[in-house]
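<derive_structure_tokens>
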Amino acid sequence: MAKPRHRRLPVKALRWRCDLTHLPFRTTDEVAPVSDVIGQASAVEALDFGLSSDAPGQNVFVRGLTGTGRMTLVKGLLEKLQPACAAVQDLCYVHNFSAPHQPRLISVPPGTARDFRRRMQEFAEFVRDDLADALQSDTLKAPREMLESQVKTLLEAITEPFEKDLRAAGLALVTVSMGPVARAAILLVRDGKPVPPEEFEQLRSQGKISDKEHKQFKKKRDGFQRRLEEVTTRMKEIREDGARIVREGVEEGARGLMGELVASIRGVFPGPDVETFLGEVVDDIVENRVLAAGEGLPDPPRAYGVNVLLCHAGEGSCPVVTEQTPTLANLLGTIEREWGTQGPIPSDYSMIRAGSLLKAAGGYLILEARDILSEPGAWKVLVRTLRSGSLEMVPPELTWPIWQPGLKPQPIPVKIRVILVGSSEIYALLDRRDPDFSDLFKVLADFGSTIERNERGVKQYAGVLARIITDEKLPPFNKKAVAALVEHGARVAGHGRKLTARFGRIADLAREAAWLAQRENSGRVVVTGEHVSEAIRRTKHRADLPSRRFQEYLADGTIRVQTSGEVVGQINGLAVISTGPLVYGFPARITATVGAGTAGIIDIEEQSSLSGSIHTKGFQILGGLLRSLLRTDHPLAFSASLAFEQSYGGIDGDSASGAEICCLLSALTGIPLRQGVAMTGAIDQMGHVQAIGGVNEKVEGFFDTCLAAGLTGEQGVIIPTANEAELMLRTDVVEACRKKKFSIWTVECIHDALEILTGVPAGRRDGADGYPEGTLLATAQEQARQFWLRSLQSPAPAEAVRKRIVAADGSVARFKTPS
């Protein structure tokens, strides 16, 4: 007979203890703080490559659990590496005179944008305050007055001879207004004064002007009319030529003045962008403020100002921007709105504000993947910017009220490296659903959730804790307090020979332990192991209300769980529930019934739509294992059902499949199971008991149930051998095991679990001889045979029985005549 492969674990195997010799100090005051993130060498190497490479698409995805120091590492490594970046021009927006709805983008040398803005501000203030006076200076005024005098002389040379001849004829040349139009007219002179047309007609009607006199006047006027038209035409030509010459002179003087003013700006900021802008500014001033009335124009500082979007003044390294809230507005920038008494004032170039994508131009932008994916449209904009290398501040899909309709700034060329920080789930989601993701984020920096549980790892824990204490001005921790935190890190890791790298959780415990120590002592405070243990207890207590309520239901009989005695077809399985940061275990009563029939094994949870996919798979494996264990030469002609009693929510996972097969074999054989022994472990079709999750919480959950009912010394938990290294049980559980009031067994195959649960040898096949007589599996095999024989004696037609048996078994039956 094969030797059993199960054992009752010794006390030392139930909880790993931190070796205090690995902590050679009295308090953390003697420990050098560790500023680097520990245990992440491969992630550091990947980040180093991603930050240093200049190849396209070398953006970085930092993958790992929260609390592993990902953001700390990224920022720290950037500070340490100080990667070289190409010089990035300062960027400004100014008014675009040819297309006002599309503000013009101007680039100037790094660090000079604010000086450019200052110079343009001074220039605009001169235009507003001093331009009019400057145009009236003697230098500009004298040529204009001389031109005007010349025009006057020419006009007099034409009009004086004509007017002299008119006077000789008793006529006069006057200007007559007819509505908005003024024209030259020849009038009769009486009593030394020209007679207006209305008065002339009145005098005629009164007989004061005879018909003869009227005919003489008309004849004289008509004689001068052709000459008047020639004089008028010539005067108009002179005036127009004079106005043009004067205008040209004024324009030339104004342009000369403006040219002198902008020359100093051109000299400091050479380049086509500034040259074009200054040329448009001079044209606007001359055409709209000097040669025209200039009414309704914006204030010069507004019209000719500079909006600095990006300035690298005083920066000696690459820009590193961490965007905590990656909304569209924060990524792209915003276009502000101003409101007047009549409503919104149209936005212009001066209201544009840079977002983090632009602020990080030439450097690095750090984003939390979860945050950017939760903001509508943000991921799409990020991908578009990285793919095109151009930042469009107002994407086509965005409209008011976030953005000003009609205002579309010129796109901005950007070269940026994005470092995206997220979980494995988010990485898989993006890789699966976004075809651009793998091309844009080619560097993966993978953060592990654990570090090695050895002397080096323990000392690194102490160094990280020393840094937290120093940064947050916490009281020192003695070595036992540090050891308690290290041991908690081993439990959180959930993996043998590992410590958790989620230092955020360890830091939270350290802060609470420090608070407890400070509340307890008013003098010099040193945090001890007792403070850490109390902090762990309090943290658990704040979140374990569901666990306490479950224990209350057990105590008052609302939930039935037996922890003593023996019952056929009933076993205590173990499950876990997560309530935020806390995972707690509890027993789950599993029952099985077996009877004649052809329905096969029925999973009541699945029939009730309460079974998850993994539990369903485990149940199907259970059927395969049952056939493997029984190895009958006939179909399995019985019906069986399994259920998690008093379970009204979903069930998933396969960790109860080991308990389920034991429960089913108990129901088939009629051999009772110990109710004081719970079991957890997944099985395969060969009967091996495989590792499960949450082993510590499951053991403690059943221990608490047994403790409430009363420890008998016969209670305990069966776990897979593969989970032994993960055990980090509470000290009260360890102490109960030390006093032999509770036990932990490890098993490698289902046979060993059956023997612990029943006290009956399970039996192992010995070649063709089958199971030894008197063993549990021999009994099970015989019971299965009896069910089959009964099925053949059914009053139903044999063929119908055969079909039902085949359907229940799931395989083609080959019958042998019973002896």
Summary: Residues 399-404, 797-819 have pLDDT under 50 and may be disordered. The CA atoms of residues 471 and 603 lie 56 Å apart. The chain has four domains: 18-39+449-543, 40-85+317-447, 144-259, 549-759+773-797. The chain is about 45% helix and 15% strand.
